[in-house]
Amino acid sequence: MGEAAAEKDFYWKLFKSTFIISAFTIGGGFVIIPLLKAKFVDEYKWMDDKEALNLVAIAQSAPGVVAANAAISMGYKLGGIRGTLTALLATILPPLITLSVISYAYDAFAHNQYIQLVLKGMQCGATAIIINVAIDLLKKELKKKLALPLLIIVGTFIANYFFNVNLMYAVIVDAVIGFFLLRDKKYA
Q1: Cβ-count burial of 103 within 10 angstroms (0-12 exposed, 13-18 middle, 19+ buried)?
Q2: Rounded to an integer, what is the distance from CA 143 to the centroid of its chain?
Q3: Helix or strand holding residue 46 (H, E)
Q4: Is the separation of the CB atoms in 68 and 84 below 8 Å?
Q5: Can you tell me the distance from the alpha carbon of 10 to that of 32, in angstroms, rounded to the nearest whole number?
Q6: Cβ contacts of residue 58 below 8 Å, gap of 6+?
Q7: Which residues of 1-26 are buried (b: 16+ CB within 10 A; e: fewer)?
Q8: How far from 140 is each of 44, 75, 82, CA to CA, in Å?
């Protein structure tokens, strides 16, 4: 269990911050990752960048919903089983509540022009967040001045964007390359 769990009101802070992040995350599970990093790494300092990146990699490679996987791995790292349950509950409650309300009044939401505009705006915001994370990652790799990680980033982008290679296949290839070629300490 992490040192963060010893803080006063840790589980409440974990629940509240994860709940709020989950409630305002639109655009898929990957959007939750930079928000969790901003809260847990930058604001609360419960873990460092490398730990968060490792937990995100686990969340992305595990089967299931990325947002739930990220909450599970970060919750466990920070607070053991109680942290896992707290973060997972806080992550799944907002979509559950939202979907319950929407399903109850589906017709009103489905055909409402203002709701459609709000959703389009939220998609734009989610896209901006994902692009920001990608640019930050690229900047960090450029500072290291190592060719192989940059080739992996560029190659993955080209394969997906220009050749429509399924992103999951690209991630698997990247994982194999990382396992065999990025073991040296200079890549850490």
Answers
A1: exposed
A2: 23
A3: none
A4: no
A5: 20
A6: 69, 73
A7: ebebbeeeebbebbbebbbebbeebb
A8: 22, 26, 33
Contact 61, 73 (CB under 8 A): no
CA distance 118 to 141: 35
Identify which of 45, 1, 38 has the alpha carbon closest to the alpha carbon of residue 20: 38
Output the six-digit token pair for 98.
């939202």
Q: How many CB atoms lie within 10 A of CB 76?
A: 19
Structure tokens at 60: 């992305």
pTM recorded for the entire structure: 0.64
- Which token pair is 44? 């609360």
DSSP state of 3: G
Indicate the burial class of 114 (C-beta count within 10 angstroms; 0-12, 13-18, 19 or more): exposed
Which two three-digit tokens encode residue 162? 């220009």
> How far apart are the C-alpha atoms of 45 and 81, rounded to whole Å?
20
pLDDT in tens for each of the 188 residues of the chain? 667 767 789 999 999 999 998 888 776 667 777 888 889 999 999 999 888 888 888 888 888 888 888 889 999 999 999 999 999 999 999 989 988 988 888 888 778 899 889 888 988 988 888 888 889 888 988 998 889 999 999 999 999 999 999 988 998 999 999 999 988 888 87
